[in-house]
Design a protein that fits this description.
It is a single chain. With 253 residues, the chain is an all-alpha fold.
């Protein structure tokens, strides 16, 4: 394992994050704080409790997941697309670095950025609502798995995209609706029966359900099923990346 190469890619990506701190950090934190103010305080105070939990506290796990997923995808996809755009990615491929080291560098940096923002938003939530974490280890595990799995997905999007429009296409048209329909602001048990069945085909439901369980000890989906779903999604992303580097699809053209 060429740890020097992994460390170099990782440090380069993290340096880019801190160079664009206002865009990378302040913007998502400010947006999420407004969610807390509007949905948690203004509207949440007029809504009955959900599953015995105040609405302001109930939406905290969903809002954290919303930010973490979008940040993991955007950071990873842009991180790998930009070297392709300026032509330096071919130099990386010709260097004595295997695909696993490249993925570890880019995905590790994107996951770190998403994790950092997720923790900051969690700390911000304590200023707006009264929440407690019943299973802190499970919360950390779900947060890490989400950062890694969606950074892998962002890496695939960055490889697939051939222009900046495509880079935004999947996050805007697919991922964001899935997150909003994944129970970020509600329990899927509140939906009509047909939509409850449809929701179980949404992978984000399992992430938010498991993450919410770590806070309140209750979930829409059994915790074991959520873990299997996340592990399966991560394995699928790794399999796709392995196939991309094996065949050279979109990277050796």
């Amino acid at each position: 394992m060429n740890w020097t190469a992994v460390k170099s890619i990782y440090r380069f990506e993290m340096a880019r994050f801190f160079r664009t701190l206002a865009q990378s950090f302040i913007s998502p934190v400010l947006s999420t704080s407004l969610y807390f103010v509007v949905f948690g305080t203004a509207i949440g105070s007029r809504i009955q409790e959900v599953e015995g939990i105040s609405y302001g506290a109930f939406i905290v796990p969903g809002l954290i997941m919303l930010s973490v997923i979008t940040q993991a995808i955007s950071n990873a996809s842009f991180g790998i697309y930009f070297p392709k755009f300026i032509g330096t990615f071919s130099e990386l491929l010709s260097a004595p670095i295997n695909f696993l080291e490249i993925v570890m560098g880019y995905v590790g940096a994107a996951a770190t950025k998403a994790l950092f923002i997720g923790v900051i938003i969690l700390i911000t939530a304590f200023f707006f609502v009264d929440i407690s974490i019943q299973h802190p280890l499970a919360m950390v595990m779900f947060l890490l798995l989400t950062c890694i799995s969606f950074s892998l997905m962002g890496f695939i999007i960055g490889i697939w995209a051939t222009n900046f429009e495509q880079l935004q296409l999947v996050p805007l048209l697919v991922v964001t609706p899935l997150v909003f329909l994944g129970g970020s602001f509600y329990s899927i048990s509140m939906l009509p029966p047909v939509w409850q069945v449809i929701s179980h085909f949404n992978p984000v439901v399992y992430l938010i359900s498991g993450f919410r369980w770590s806070f309140f000890g209750s979930a829409d989906v059994p915790i074991a099923i959520s873990l299997v779903a996340i592990a399966g999604f991560t394995a699928l992303c790794l399999g796709v990346i392995w196939w991309i580097f094996r065949t050279g699809w979109r990277i050796r053209q």
